[in-house]
Automatic annotation (TrEMBL):
The chain crosses the membrane at residues 146-163, 169-185, 254-275. This is ATP-binding cassette, subfamily B. Residues 342-576 form the ABC transporter domain. It holds the Pfam family ABC_membrane. GO terms for molecular function: ABC-type transporter activity; ATP binding; ATP hydrolysis activity; ATPase-coupled lipid transmembrane transporter activity. The keyword Magnesium does not apply. Keywords: ATP-binding, Cell inner membrane, Cell membrane, Membrane, Nucleotide-binding, Transmembrane, Transmembrane helix, Transport. Belongs to the ABC transporter superfamily. Siderophore-Fe(3+) uptake transporter (SIUT) (TC 3.A.1.21) family. It is found in: Cell inner membrane. SUPFAM superfamilies: ABC transporter transmembrane region, P-loop containing nucleoside triphosphate hydrolases. It comes from Ornithinimicrobium cerasi.
Length: 588
């Protein structure tokens, strides 16, 4: 909580205001017990009562009327301040929840792609959503309850101290037991709720992954197996929660026994003192009520501790996420204009602590030319594209655009000038037009439709029920793979980038659509640097230069005709795809 206090300095005045409102409410809450004692004192002592001496009203009925009026005012004030304090705490909790969630999401967006790829999406989601919600629940009610409990002890203690030190000592004897018990339970609960939050993260990760892979689950009739896996994760969460609940539930019976001891002492000794005449009857009734008021609210300590431990487990996970630091940081340099010349100089690259995927790769893509990267699976093609987009940095060597190292550029200077079409196209929840305009939200409808025509997407879009306003659904699941790729190509074209990067942009289209996209690529790549990765060599045969990768090294390069005319991996692959090479010759 100290870290949150330091992090959100702008809300300190609101926190103080909330505490003040809670304090006034609690003071008003204690007054009715005092009024009950005063009323009994009026009935018993009449003209000699405390009220008579203060208000100079000898008649008992008039005294009771005064007490009724004061009681009504107190209740109105208590209700008013209860509303105001509740409003203050809840609004504060909602604001902190909002800020922390946005901060956590912004931080996650700034982390490297390698971090995202190494962590289950559901685990991140559980922190950004569920853990932040747990903190909000504690700020909403928990802090107020803790403060009220502390005030209750102070205010009631003051009443007891003014009445009888003997009864004060006896009534307060259970409190050390409750405090020690609370600290003991807190130590027991902390590791249990850490396990609970971890179990929540595992469930979230598993469910998120399964929902994303539902087509695969169904195609392999794995529903029962996945149900068992989710059930096992849910059971682990239930067991972890049950363990924490057993520990927290045992707390209230302990407090009840302590309350019993304190209440009994006040009831007996206070009663004997009233009978002996050493304690006024009205004051005795106040102390009996106050003992209940003092000790009974402590039964909620278990509930508050439960909220506190859940919140602290969540805060630790949130702060751990915020402590993650990106490895790939933006530079400070911007470019007034990007010509599009790309170069890799003696680049080595890999993933995390694994072996190198690219070995001493050097290549140059002159501005305005179309170059292709081909090679077998695992050759390092996608890794090379990650370097061009600066999703990762090379282990050694340099990646340059217009002779400037990518590490020197701001994200806008680099990625703001690049159009990217991934092999696994991601479409967002929204309309077709919104997805095409994602990289350029200010584009007009005419520009969106032009980009769709250039990507050979206009024909199927216009055939949809609502045309460009058709809702495509989450991840574009209502569209075919080829349709999604053409929309992604339109999205890249609309951005009018200096560099266009295509990762298997025609992998999910038929031959007719591939030919149409090739025609559009010939148009949109004119005067624009284009780098494309492809397995289907027919897609890249018209490239200005083709780079052949194998085992992370450039093993050949040239135009399509040059590579086909000389023996090598490209010629062999071309022969396989055109049916001119036998299976025995390729070793397949």
């Amino acid at each position: 909580m100290v870290q949150l206090w330091a992090r959100y300095r702008q809300y300190r005045a609101r926190v103080v205001t909330a505490f003040v409102l809670s304090t006034v409410r609690k003071v008003m809450d204690v007054v009715p017990e005092l009024l009950i004692g005063a009323a009994i004192d009026v009935v018993v002592r009449g003209a000699d009562s405390f009220v008579a001496s203060v208000l100079d009203v000898p008649d008992r009925r008039d005294q009771l009327i005064w007490l009724a009026v004061i009681n009504a005012v107190v209740w109105v004030l208590e209700s008013t301040f209860d509303y105001l304090s509740s409003l203050a705490w809840r609004n504060l909790a909602q604001q902190v929840e909002h800020d922390l969630r946005v901060e956590a999401y912004a931080h996650v967006q700034g982390l490297d792609m390698a971090w995202h790829e190494s962590r289950p999406t559901g685990a991140t989601l559980s922190v950004v959503n569920d853990d932040v919600n747990q903190l909000e629940r504690f700020l909403d009610t928990g802090v107020d309850k803790l403060w009220t409990l502390a005030l209750n002890i102070v205010l009631v203690g003051a009443v007891f101290a003014a009445s009888s030190w003997t009864l004060t000592l006896l009534a307060f004897l259970p409190i050390p037991v409750i405090v020690v018990g609370s600290l003991w339970f807190q130590r027991r609960l902390q590791p249990r709720y850490t396990v609970v939050r971890q179990a929540v993260g595992r469930i979230s990760g598993l469910v998120a992954a399964n929902l994303g892979g539902m087509a695969t689950i169904k195609s392999f009739t794995a529903e029962d197996r996945e149900l068992v896996r989710v059930g096992a994760a849910s059971e682990a969460y239930r067991v972890a929660n049950a363990d924490a609940i057993r520990a927290s539930a045992a707390f209230v019976p302990l407090i009840r026994m302590a309350i019993l001891a304190g209440f009994t002492m006040t009831l007996l000794l206070g009663g004997w003192m009233a009978l002996d005449g050493t304690l006024e009857v009205g004051l005795y009734s106040v102390l009996v009520f106050m003992t209940q008021r003092l000790l009974w609210p402590l039964t909620s300590v278990g509930e508050v501790l439960d909220l506190y431990q859940r919140a602290m487990a969540s805060v630790r996970r949130i702060l751990a996420l915020l402590d993650e630091r990106p490895v790939t940081l933006p530079g400070t340099r911007s470019l007034p204009a990007v010509q599009g010349r790309l170069e890799l100089r003696a680049v080595r690259a890999g993933y995390a602590d694994g072996p190198d995927v690219l070995h001493d790769v050097s290549l140059v893509v002159p501005a305005g030319e179309v170059h292709a990267i081909v090679g077998p699976t695992g050759a390092g093609k996608s890794t090379l594209l990650r370097l061009l987009l600066r999703f990762a940095d090379p282990r050694s060597g340099r990646v340059l655009v217009d002779d400037v190292d990518l590490r020197e550029l701001t994200w806008e200077a680099l990625r703001g000038r690049v159009g990217y079409v991934a092999q696994d196209v991601f479409l967002f929840e929204g309309s077709v037009a919104e997805n095409i305009a994602y990289g350029r939200p200010t584009a007009s409808r005419e520009e969106i439709e032009l980009a769709a025509r250039q990507a050979e997407a206009s024909s199927f879009v216009e055939a949809m029920s609502d045309g460009y306003d058709t809702h495509v659904g989450e991840r574009g699941v209502t569209l075919s793979g080829g349709q999604r790729q053409r929309l992604a190509l339109a999205r890249a074209i609309l951005r009018d980038p200096a560099v266009l990067i295509l990762d298997e942009a025609t992998s999910a289209v038929d031959n007719e659509t591939e030919a149409a996209i090739q025609r559009s690529l010939a148009e949109v790549s004119r005067g624009r640097t284009t780098v494309m990765v492809a397995h289907r060599l027919s897609t890249v045969r018209h490239a200005d230069r083709i780079w052949v990768l194998d085992a992370g090294r450039v093993v050949d390069a040239g135009t399509h005709d040059e590579l086909v005319d000389r023996p090598g991996p490209y010629a062999d692959l071309w022969a396989v795809q055109t049916g001119d090479l036998t299976t025995e010759r390729t070793g397949a």
